[in-house]
Amino acid sequence: MGIDQDFENALEHHYEAVWSRTSSRHIWNRGPGLPQQCRVFEYAPSDNAPFWVYATCGMSVLKEPPLLELFLLSPCKTEDHVELLTVIAHYHQTAAKLDLGHTVNFGRPWLPQSKCSFGLISLPYLFGPSLENAQAGGVAVRVLWLVPITFEERQLKIRAGQGALEEIFERHQFNYLDALRDSVVKESDSHS
Questions:
Q1: Backbone phi and psi for residue 102, each to the nearest 5 degrees, phi listed first
Q2: Which of 9, 71, 100, 142 has its CA 20 to 30 A from that of 19?
Q3: 136 φ, ψ to 5°?
Q4: Does the structure show a pLDDT above 80 at 46?
Q5: Ranges of H-type helices in the chain
Q6: Sign of CA dihedral 41, 71, 14, 29
């Protein structure tokens, strides 16, 4: 089943209004098929946003609200992010509904040599409610941030909650674009 064209155009317009740039559209056609095909929009860096953005369109099956879409920020362009977001969309459509605060196992490093092999579904703090709350094709859509995290960060989130993990992120002013970063969770944090 394809994506409703009005939905796709409206969501793309929403993304472009927030990121002030146009997208290129990608479809990952390898692997198992999806009940509803998911596109991934790719946005190149700009002067005021020096990172790549990958955002889903059609992650949720349109007849099953609430609708969720995810975006991922990256220091580089790579087809791997199109595959990753498509696999997560497949999981969301066929296995378990994802939502704010959930974590997903990437099954591989986010980028080569990265210690981040999990993702935390978080609020889009850098962009605020103007990105999070979308209307596409007459349907309310929630757009959330897929933040790459390490195994240790995931364990802390499970043990102490998303708020505890995000507090440590804030305290360490972690660089969400640094694929080679170390975990922000230290031994002293494990007793939180």
A1: -75, 155
A2: 100
A3: -140, 120
A4: yes
A5: 5-19, 79-94, 129-132, 151-160, 162-172
A6: positive
- Measure the CA–CA gap between 162 and 29, rounded to whole angstroms: 33
CA atoms of 65 and 120, how far apart (whole Å): 21
The answer to whether the beta carbons of residues 124 and 144 sit under 8 Å apart is: yes
- Rounded to the nearest 5 degrees, what angle is found at the Cα of 23, between the Cα atoms of 22 and 26? 170
**Spatial distance between the Cα atoms of 91 and 97, rounded to a whole number of angstroms:** 8
Residue 75 CB contacts under 8 Å (≥ 6 apart), including other chains:
51, 52, 111, 177, 178, 179
Residue 62 has pLDDT above 80, yes or no: no
Confidence at residue 192, expressed as pLDDT on a 0 to 100 scale: 46
One-letter amino acid for residue 10 of the chain: A
Q: Is the pLDDT of residue 65 over 80?
A: no
- Dist CA 132 CA 124 (whole Å): 6
140-187 pLDDT, tens digit each: 999 999 999 999 999 999 999 999 999 999 999 889 999 999 999 975
Q: Coil, helix or strand for 74? A: strand
